[in-house]
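Subject: design request, 448 residues
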């Protein structure tokens, strides 16, 4: 979910973010055949969960929520929120926007924050440190430990106090079209990918789709690409230090990750349509070339929401599949980037407490999973809940394997000013690769 992701994550999500979860997309073929409607038994269980959580409490007639997901992604979340309304009588007035961080900031400064906001972890951390968010540890400590992994709870904590819960969850992978792909099978090193890309470019074949146009958040897909390369070369310790501002944006490591990204996505010979085209191509449709007939690209490095964006032509196992992102340094092959927004409460009352307990519950997240939009974070939701074989594979690959270590970095941990500068920096760098040093200095300045 966004990156958008996202994600956001859109999200990656978008979220981020623009967490990976800042997305609006179309259903996969499996969703069009019924998966997108969810499972009625899961819906009923979610309604019953909401009713049980609300028992004995007087809740408000409505609650306001702002999130990064709009379009179809926003509608998916609202289906889950309808279950809350059916069980409690409280209407969830949801607004989705790709400019989520600026909207929330403006409302907080005006003294009129939303009851609930679904925002990037870095932005949420800033509000938590300022004492603006409800402490969920007191409200639902045992539930949080049952439903989320310790690593996820640590990422959504300040001074040991959990401030947010996860809805969707976005992983990143190398997407390809089995009918068109000519690259290495089960690649284990990034060099295999770059050698293949260079060889195809020499034949006049650009193999990458890499749309960057997301309005105010343009550049965030590239930022997530860069983060993957950084993690796979320098590992989780430096990656987290980068995200938390302890490793400078002007460091050799960050510069190297940008340059690896630019060596592929900054080349007209290697991206479908050329660099100018990917800068103007909207993310909602800019990855359709992967499954077009004929395909205009063979590879995409982005989040788990890609099939949903592409739509009915993305047939799992036939026209779309994925590999884990190959490692630059083999020591870090098992480290995988994830991104998610986190739902936080600016107003502490019975209604917001009940709503966040509902969002975190296994019943609500199982219903969300059955809507087949993105993976969910609740550890009690089995892979079989998803109707989409692609999402089942994502869940098994990233949550069902003991050799996968999930990591977060700048898209999730940095504050809004830094991430905005990061996204803008990606666009500037793609427009003018010689500007890299000044781009990195501008992001470093924004992070102070």
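Subject: RE: design request

Done. Sequence follows.
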């Amino acid at each position: 979910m966004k990156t958008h992701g996202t994600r956001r994550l859109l999200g990656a999500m978008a979220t981020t973010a623009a967490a990976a979860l800042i997305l609006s997309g179309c259903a996969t073929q499996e969703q069009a055949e019924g998966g997108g409607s969810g499972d009625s038994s899961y819906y009923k269980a979610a309604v019953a969960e909401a009713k049980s959580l609300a028992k004995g409490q007087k809740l408000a007639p409505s609650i306001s929520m702002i999130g990064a997901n709009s379009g179809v992604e926003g509608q998916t979340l609202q289906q889950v929120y309808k279950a809350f309304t059916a069980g409690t009588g409280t209407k969830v007035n949801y607004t989705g926007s790709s400019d989520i961080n600026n909207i929330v900031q403006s409302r907080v400064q005006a003294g009129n924050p939303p009851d609930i906001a679904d925002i990037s972890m870095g932005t949420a951390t800033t509000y938590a440190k300022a004492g603006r968010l409800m402490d969920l540890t007191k409200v639902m400590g045992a539930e949080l430990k049952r439903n989320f992994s310790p690593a996820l709870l640590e990422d959504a904590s300040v001074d040991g106090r959990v401030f947010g819960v996860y809805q969707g969850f976005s992983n990143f992978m190398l997407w390809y079209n089995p009918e068109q792909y000519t690259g290495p099978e089960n690649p284990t090193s990034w060099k295999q990918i770059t050698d293949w890309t260079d060889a195809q470019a020499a034949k006049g074949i650009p193999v990458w789709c890499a749309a960057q146009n997301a309005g105010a958040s343009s550049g965030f897909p590239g930022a997530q690409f860069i983060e993957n390369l950084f993690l796979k070369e320098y590992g989780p310790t430096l990656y987290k230090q980068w995200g938390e501002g302890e490793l400078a944006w002007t460091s050799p490591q960050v510069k190297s990750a940008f340059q690896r990204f630019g060596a592929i996505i900054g080349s007209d010979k290697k991206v479908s349509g050329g660099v100018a085209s990917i800068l103007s191509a909207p993310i909602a449709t800019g990855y359709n070339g992967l499954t077009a007939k004929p395909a205009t690209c063979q590879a995409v490095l982005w989040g788990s929401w890609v099939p949903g964006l592409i739509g009915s032509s993305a047939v799992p196992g036939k026209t779309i599949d994925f590999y884990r992102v190959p490692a630059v340094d083999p020591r870090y092959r098992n480290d995988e980037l994830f991104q998610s927004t986190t739902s936080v409460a600016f107003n502490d009352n019975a209604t917001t407490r009940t709503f966040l307990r509902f969002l975190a519950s296994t019943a609500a997240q199982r219903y969300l999973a059955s809507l087949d939009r993105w993976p969910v974070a609740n550890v009690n939701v089995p892979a079989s809940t998803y109707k989409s074989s692609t999402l089942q594979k994502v869940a098994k690959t990233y949550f069902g394997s003991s050799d996968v270590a999930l990591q977060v970095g700048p898209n999730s941990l940095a504050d809004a000013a830094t991430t905005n500068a990061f996204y803008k920096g990606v666009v500037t760098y793609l427009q003018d690769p010689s500007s890299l040093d000044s781009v990195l200095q501008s992001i470093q300045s924004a992070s102070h």
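The chain has two domains: 29-169+340-395, 171-338.
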